[in-house]
Design brief:
Chain lengths: ~325, ~300, ~350
């Protein structure tokens, strides 16, 4: 799998972000490596898009490239009709407040030498009061994320990992953004704290109306928080579908293998990946990039790259031989 | 392995919001106090020495007391013309410490600026700065200094200039490495995402986190500069007589070592203790400023 | 617990304390455990629960500032009574360990082959050619393709999953009877995690080895271990066969832990149930049950008295005054719900705004 195509893009006036044919390359010793190759997707107002895949699949780079960190090598990223890839540095800076981000490492994402109040208020210092929040309402925002405002003068190292992640969330919300990229925000946390943060994200999203792009390697977490899920493998999209739909009817062999590997899952899926090494992104396999590990791979898969095509309502897969229930196939 | 325990202690402490985090009671604490105390005493004598009544005129010659060993009248003994060595050490310290402080300051300012820009802006600025650092550090240091002093003459200004050429690249390299590390942190990216301007990020996010390393290394550099200047004096290449520095006192004592061993050992001990204290304070500061910055 | 002669591992009232600047930290607080031959047990807990310290202590890797009391018997031998000579060929031979990060066990500048054969030559006195053949066989057993070629490679040339397989092969080199795996798959992707756990399962069956699997993931523990022990604040809270634990968990902490994990079988946007509050301060542990402050079943008794680990039903141990699914437990919960607050002062109003 791992294909290209734009069949899954929606024609909806509520589309906030539309990414088409995005490629991100990094220079490596003696050449370049494509971390993201020809990925397209869109994000609707108020939607949570989960991006899932294993390390090296380009999920994090894809999300970060949306906010132009790094800038994509080619392709377009339309945010409310403006192509962010074409903006000058200064114009890009002016749309930054609308596109925020929450990082994986809760402690390293906060400057250890500034107070929590300063960290949260930094956006307002740069842009002035915007929308919901103002300097004198920082306490209210701290309360909303569950940090006692009396602790505003403390430094980050005096808080636990979960609390630091709450502070990060407050910082991301202070400018009333439209889109927040959540890059593995709960991966570094214990499960009990992870649940707190996931609930908080849901609450904040409902309260302040924002779209999320949620990146995680944990399928259970992604399923819980997302409306739609995009599965990635080696820089390509495998499958896009509504969250419940994807988990009920996974059709891509890679998606199925991922689900079968969830520890303790009672899901009926039992599909194994072949025991081959993950191919190198420097020299990806021809055709479908998953063909070296796919149990259903044929000669076609080794030569022709599959395009995303619909297999159900809002359910798209890039596979020549998707696993379809008999009823759906007829 | 003990990092496990330390980690647990940190986690446990963090989970409970210890308002004033207790510093690990270091067994080096009293050494730190001693070192800092010594530096304060040295500084006090050097700055106020001229007004202190019990310190004699360092240039006053006394034919009655030539090359005497230490005594109540002359704590560090007397020199070959009967001058009080203690007074000379105090007076010499003025120049030695002035050179050390000035060079360190220049090093921090210029080296720090170069390192900060190279580490933060990367690209061609970085390449250029790295080239400059490599080239300067490749030149044999002592030869360079001797060259400058011989060509330009033995003035205070030239000694400072020559030694600065050693300090700037050394500090620039350390600051660059530290900046590279800090600039890679997520909080710098977070500021970028918020739309903070580059200059502002450099000043507000990067600099405060590079500063502790810079200040700690400044102490170490200060020590190295003191030794470098003394070596120059000893070779007769530093500031010309009659100006005294610690190195020149030692050099003078060496000529008639059998008569005046105290002129070598006592100023030598002062120099040694001062450099040791500087190193120690710098080291401890580096440890104290070290905040755990990652949860992973 | 039974005093069986065929016990592979017997731990009796194990306590580990670390002296830190801020005081004495009790990392493992009175753990007793038996592990039969061929048996596997999973120790589950969150960070700071003491599960890793327990594992390291068993293998004789206690940090310098740690002190241990209580006895550990591996294969019937008290590890404190080992002679210097026995000790030399004990850890790594009788009992071996696999760490979370494979690079902590691998030397980055030595070839895989040299690292694999080294311990066989040292402990078993094997000649080079035999050790080499065994190394190849081992790599094949952990499903590493083209093992002959791998022997000549350096660790950095392998992927994370392959490295962990090499580490497992190294741990198995001297045919240990007890394998301790400390979060062996936490740093790996799920598909790789599955294959690694499969390899460990397979080898355990083949070699009649006992296994202690340390993990933070209840899902990993289920299905990979005969018994599961749940640790919290240095103590075993519940210990039961995997089946009993999931069908009838007794300790409120086990239940709370399971409830806080997003379940892929439930629809998206299902509200999660985090555990309120935070773990106790190990420098200043509470007198009563360590979980009382966060427990929905807590009564005043829980704050005052530490519940002992008792055998509630055959083979099912738990340390709780008011266990889940028992009349006392349900009564305590019902009473707390009525009052809206637990005996330890925790508000049960889920909607209440609370600072963490």
């Amino acid at each position: 799998m791992a294909g290209s195509g734009t069949a899954h893009l929606r024609d909806d006036p509520r589309v906030l972000v539309r990414v088409e044919h995005m490629v991100v390359e990094f220079p490596i010793h003696g050449g370049t490596v494509q971390a993201v190759s020809d990925v397209s997707f869109d994000l609707i107002e108020g939607e949570t898009l989960g991006i899932v895949g294993e390390s090296g699949c380009g999920k994090s780079t894809t999300a970060r490239a949306v906010i132009q960190m790094p800038r994509p090598t080619s392709g377009s990223v339309l945010f409310r009709g403006t192509d962010l890839t074409q903006l000058s540095a200064e114009d890009l800076r002016s749309v930054r407040p609308d596109l925020q981000m929450i990082f994986q490492d809760p402690i390293s994402s906060l400057n250890p030498r500034r107070t929590v109040h300063d960290i949260i208020a930094e956006g307002l210092r740069v842009w002035g009061d915007r929308g919901e929040w103002s300097i004198d309402k920082i306490d209210e925002l701290m309360e909303a994320v569950g940090i006692d405002p009396r602790y505003g003068e403390r430094k980050p190292h005096q808080f636990s990992g979960g609390q630091c992640q709450r502070i990060s969330i407050a910082r991301a919300f202070v400018l009333d953004p439209k889109v927040i990229i959540c890059d593995e925000p709960v991966s570094a946390l214990d499960v009990s704290v992870q649940a707190q943060i996931l609930n908080l994200l849901e609450d904040m999203k409902a309260r302040y109306g924002v779209s999320l792009m949620f990146i995680s390697h944990d399928l259970s977490v992604v399923k819980n928080i997302s409306d739609r899920v995009m599965v990635m493998y080696l820089g390509k999209v495998c499958e896009v579908a509504g969250s419940d739909d994807l988990f009920a009817r996974p059709t891509h062999h890679y998606t199925r293998a991922l689900m079968a590997a969830i520890p303790g899952s009672r899901a009926i899926v039992d599909e194994q990946v072949l025991e081959a090494e993950l191919p190198s992104a420097i020299d990806p396999p021809a055709g479908c990039r998953f063909n070296t590990r796919c149990p259903a791979a044929t000669d076609e898969c080794r030569s022709v790259e599959p395009q995303l095509r619909p297999v159900g309502d809002g359910h798209f897969v890039a596979c020549h031989h998707p696993h379809l229930p008999v009823a759906a196939a007829s | 392995m003990s990092s496990v325990a330390a980690d647990m202690a940190v986690k446990s402490a963090r989970a409970h919001d210890i308002t004033d985090p207790k510093r690990p009671a270091s067994q080096h604490n009293w050494l730190f106090i001693l070192a800092a105390g010594w530096l304060i005493v040295v500084l006090f004598f050097v700055v106020f020495g001229r007004w202190l009544p019990f310190i004699q005129d360092p240039t006053a010659k006394d034919a009655q007391a030539i090359a005497q060993s230490p005594s109540w009248d002359h704590w560090f003994g007397t020199a070959t013309f009967g001058q009080d060595v203690f007074a000379r050490v105090v007076e010499g310290g003025r120049i030695s410490l002035f050179v050390g402080a000035t060079v360190t300051f220049i090093g921090i300012f210029l080296g720090g600026l170069l390192g900060l820009l190279a580490g933060y802006l990367r690209g061609w600025v970085d390449s250029l700065v790295r080239l400059l650092i490599s080239v300067t550090l490749a030149i044999p240091a002592l030869l360079l200094v001797i060259f400058i002093v011989t060509i330009q003459g033995q003035s205070l200004k030239n000694v400072i200039l020559a030694v600065s050429l050693l300090a700037i690249p050394a500090l620039a390299r350390i600051v660059r490495a530290s900046t590279l590390q800090v600039a890679d942190r997520d909080y710098v990216k977070a500021a970028q995402v918020l739309g903070v301007k580059k200059g502002s990020i450099l000043v507000r996010e990067v600099l405060p986190n590079v500063m502790p390393t810079l200040v700690s290394f400044a102490f170490l550099t200060f020590g190295i500069i003191l030794v470098a200047e003394s070596s120059l004096s000893f070779l007769g290449l530093s500031v010309e007589a009659p100006t005294i520095t610690w190195g020149s006192i030692i050099a003078e004592g060496r000529i008639k070592f059998s008569d005046t061993p105290h002129m070598v050992f006592l100023p030598g001990a002062v120099l040694f203790l001062t450099v040791l204290s500087l190193n120690f304070v710098g080291d401890q500061m580096l440890k104290r400023f070290d905040i755990k910055e990652s949860g992973l | 617990m039974s005093d069986d002669r065929s016990n592979m591992l017997e731990i009796d009232d194990l306590r580990v304390e670390f002296s830190t600047a801020a005081g004495s930290l009790s990392a493992v607080d009175g753990v007793s455990l038996q592990l039969a031959e061929k048996e596997s047990i999973a120790i589950v807990g969150e960070s700071g629960s003491g599960k890793s310290v327990l594992a390291r202590t068993l293998i004789g890797l206690l940090a310098g500032n740690g002190t241990r009391t209580g006895s550990i018997r591996i294969g019937g031998k008290d590890i404190d009574a080992l002679t210097k000579k026995e000790r030399k060929h004990f850890f790594g031979v009788q009992a071996a360990m696999v760490f979370q990060d494979p690079m902590t066990s691998l030397n980055p500048v030595k070839r895989i082959g040299a690292q694999l054969t080294e311990s066989m030559k040292y402990h078993l006195d094997l000649p080079s050619n035999i050790a080499n053949d065994r190394a190849i066989a081992l790599l094949r057993q952990v499903h590493i393709p083209s093992p002959e070629r791998r022997l000549r490679q350096y660790p950095h040339e392998l992927s994370g999953g392959m490295r962990q397989r090499v580490v497992i092969a190294m741990a198995l080199a001297c045919e240990p009877r007890l394998l301790i795996a400390d979060e062996p798959t936490t740093a790996l992707d799920v598909t790789v995690q599955k294959t690694i756990l499969d390899v460990i399962d397979e080898l355990r069956a083949e070699r009649n080895m006992s296994l202690i699997l340390i993990t933070h993931d209840l899902g990993v523990a289920e299905g990979r271990a005969d018994r599961i022990g749940v640790m919290y604040a240095g103590r075993l809270m519940e210990l039961a066969s995997a089946k009993d634990l999931f069908s009838g968990m007794r300790h409120p902490y086990t239940q709370a832990l399971l409830r806080s994990i997003p379940n892929p079988d439930r629809p998206s946007h299902t509200r999660l149930h985090p555990i309120p509050g935070r773990p106790p301060d190990l420098l200043n542990p509470p007198t009563g049950c360590a979980f009382a402050a966060r427990c929905r079943h807590a009564r005043p008794e829980c704050v005052d008295n530490k519940p002992p680990l008792i055998e509630g039903s055959a083979g099912h141990f738990f340390a709780c005054h008011f266990p889940v699914g028992t009349p006392e437990g349900e009564a305590a919960l019902a009473e707390n719900m009525r009052a809206g607050v637990t005996g330890a002062g925790l508000s049960l109003d889920e909607a209440a705004e609370e600072f963490v």
